[in-house]
């Protein structure tokens, strides 16, 4: 079964929504993606694993954000609302296993290289996807996959040559009169693979303990701001490079130089001004710099008044009373 009409919340047309700019030397759409999201999640008690939220975002949405640079993204599962439009497909019969699902997904992509992903990778990000595709191209192997902290292969966090997958699947189909129920290793064992160690991006959520670990990690001090910004951008459907330090400095200047409530209001106004100008990151940076300079001038003026450097009639430490109602 194939559903061409995407069900993404951010768009309704038949083509995938634009994703992040591709890496240096990599044209956007130079690879496709197949995401396998139709498993039974038995170790989660049959829960809807792709819809489980980590950091306020569904696991499937986190994976779709990571592979947004793909030309075509096929999700093999029943359709659902997602963070961006995708193409939906379903293996026959449903629940036929990873090889049957992969074979179905490959029927709807055309690129020579395909990223194959599971839907339970909370820490996968676009740079890792690009790294896999780059490793595939530079090594000449059939595939490039991540290995976890124990050195174990993770074949559902990988980039493959589409032709190699199709040949392997065809051979298995002939040998077993079908793909239903066959394990993924039957395919990958026959491929020439290169390995990319990454214990973080390869972390997958098979149990509720894994979910708890992922939720705790993104709230650690070193990760929480990046995770929150990514979550907000996904929720609002925007793709904008955010200079976190610049905006935090602006918020600090507004809070200290004006008043604490001025911090969120000022950053909002900066974003609104940049949007009105139809600008990108450069416009945000420029408006932030202007607002920060204003906050510093405000603070300097307040400091001058408090110190009384412009004392009335030359009296040191006394500021003139220039109020309209002054006697």
TrEMBL record:
Where is the MobA-like NTP transferase domain positioned along the sequence?
33-176
Q: Does the keyword Nuclease apply?
A: no
All residue ranges annotated as the DUF6457 domain in the record: 221-301
Which of UniProt's keywords are assigned here?
A: Cytoplasm, GTP-binding, Magnesium, Metal-binding, Molybdenum cofactor biosynthesis, Nucleotide-binding, Nucleotidyltransferase, Transferase
Q: Which GO terms describe its molecular function?
A: nucleotidyltransferase activity
Q: Region Disordered: what ranges?
A: 1-21, 295-327
Low complexity bias located where? 305-320
Answer whether the UniProt record assigns the keyword GTP-binding to this protein.
yes
| Protein known as | Molybdenum cofactor guanylyltransferase
Q: Which organism is it from?
A: Streptomyces actuosus
